[in-house]
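Researcher: Re-running this chain for the archive, since the previous output was lost when a drive failed. Same request as before.
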Amino acid sequence: MTFYYEIYHNLVKSGMFVWEIKRLHEVYGPIVRINPREVHISDFNFLDQIYSFSRPRNKAEYVTSALDMRLSIGSKCGYETHKIRRTALTPFFSTPGVSKLESFVATKIEQLCKQLEESRDHARTSSNNMDSDTTKACSETRGELPLHFNVAQVVEALADPHSSSEKSNQGNRKTIFYELRDTPLLPLKEKSLDRLMHEGLLLVAAGASWIVRTTTVQLTVPTGSEATAKSLYVTHYHLLANPDILNKLRAELKTLPQTTSWAELEQLPYLTAVITEGNRLVFGLTMRNCRTFPTETLHYGSYVLPPG
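Model: Regenerated structure tokens:
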């Protein structure tokens, strides 16, 4: 088998290789070879073996190279290096780490709601050109909300060992760039300017395609996975499409005061169920997310897959 089989179905047949893989499984069973480098297993019970958190797994280089961020956690960096980088990032996504941002997020939500209400009122009272007024209102809203982030400026400031996030345009809230630079969880070689930029951009690059230039590197940042935004709009769609569910959720939310904490919101069972179901309905990567096994021989039924 060659790669031309996959090329044919993806290029000539316009991206149909994923369905061809499904057909191969229907004909040949749960394990098939789909190209010279990949064996595909269609078995949900085997997922934990492939994507194990406790045993060494590496990402396929030809998949990660598409990110153009070779120094980030999303690159083919090897199991041990990935583990070090993941450990340094874990505090950002822990419950305490997210809770620290609650007041900041609440302020931005209030600001956004205020601007949306003003835009709505402006559109309602206008008796002239609705499209023109709405466009103007949206432009004003966009201008007053901080929708940009000067990545190059922040990253280059990291080179100054005396600089700190306290002096950044984020106020007293530490940014991820400074946290990664100052954390004791990363060795010195993991704190180079280029690596910190790749890592930070992988996490913040959502919804835009930028070209970032510094004194040492030029990097094209692709659109991010926008997982949070996707979860929000998928959840909102299903709420609007199912008024009974929406009304039940609103009734539960009304049991709390308008100004409440996330800790209190977490105690609402129906809200929690809606969020969980919304996340479940959002698909992840729209491509194969391959793994290699550097030290382990994998067994699937009577099949033996050697390391590599």
